[in-house]
Amino acid sequence: MTLSPPARPLALVTGASSGMGAAFARRLAARGHDVALVARRRDRLEALAAELDAAHGVRCLVIALDLSLADAHDRVLSALAGRPVAVLVNNAGYSLSAAYAETDWPAQRDCVMTLVMAVCALTHAVLPGMLAAGQGRIITTSSLLALSQGGPGHTVYPAAKSFVLKFMVSLHAEVKARGVRVTCVLPGSTSSEFQAANGTETAMRGMPQAFIASPEQVVDAALAASDRGQLVVIPGWYNRLAALLFRVLPDGLQRWAAARAAGAFAGGNT
């Protein structure tokens, strides 16, 4: 009698078509996870799935989907066909660089749906299974700007990332004693397609290269923090210094500095 090999744990990664999402998928596949890849660009996801299968022999499920849709989480669950999720990586996100009043409401709405509602909905969808199993991991990408006072341009982005941070902190308090690890990563400037998408590549090119992390550096820090059961991780000493300044500088001074910067720094964050 031949026994079938045990099923590999499944990792669900959003925003998997590029940048940190693709890096998360590669790292988790290398750890022996099958991976469900969620993003809008099917061709990118299929290419990544083929790469992971060839490199690690894992199964990949491609879910080409816009997470701004109100029923996106239901579509993801339907695609998973009842398979439990061992690791959820909430990574999908983008920002809008124009002023709030000068951007059509549907664009602002879709941004909030992706940054906030999709995170809440997918977490709510997979969490009961993790709690029933007594184990699981939820890793969510916030931003260093979650600690800031915000500023002109990218208007909803710092607010949305602040929500995500507080949501993960609260969730951690609920589930930490029940075997589920929650980690929230707050990257600073990261080299990815994020800046090209929101038109802020020029601002980022003016930053010292030492202050710009690679997606792999951020992902490795996030996974190491999850391994330790650490709730919040800020990769890079320069980002930890910035986080300290956000905490100690008077709010009024921060708002003045943000106004002077006109939101350029926001475009360099994920």
Radius of gyration: 18 Å
Mean pLDDT: 86
Q: End-to-end span in angstroms?
A: 51 Å
Low-pLDDT stretches = 195-204, 263-270
CATH topology: Rossmann fold
DSSP strand tally: 7
Describe the oligomeric state of these chains in a short phrase: single chain
> For the record, what is the CATH homologous superfamily label?
NAD(P)-binding Rossmann-like Domain
Overall helicity: 40-55%
| Molecular shape | globular
Strand content: 5-15%
Query: What topology, given as strand order, has the largest sheet?
Result: 3-2-1-4-5-6-7
Main sheet, how many strands, which sense, barrel? 7 strands, parallel
Could you spell the SSE succession in H and E letters? Answer: EHEHEHEHEHEHHHEHH
Coarse structural class: alpha/beta
CATH class descriptor name = Alpha Beta
Number of domains: 1
Task: Give descriptors for this structure.
globular, 7-stranded parallel β-sheet, 270 residues, single chain, disordered C terminus
Describe the protein's architecture and organization.
Helix content is 49%, strand content 13%. The chain has a single domain (10-268), classed as NAD(P)-binding Rossmann-like Domain (Rossmann fold), CATH 3.40.50.720. Strands 3-2-1-4-5-6-7 form a 7-stranded parallel β-sheet, sandwiched between helices. The protein has 270 residues and is an alpha/beta fold. The protein has helices spanning 19-30, 42-56, 72-80, 105-133, 156-175, 194-198, 201-205, 215-228, 237-248, 251-261; strands spanning 10-14, 34-39, 60-64, 87-90, 136-141, 180-185, 232-233. Strand 1, helix 1 (19-30) and strand 2 (34-39) form a beta-alpha-beta unit. It contains 10 helices and 7 strands.
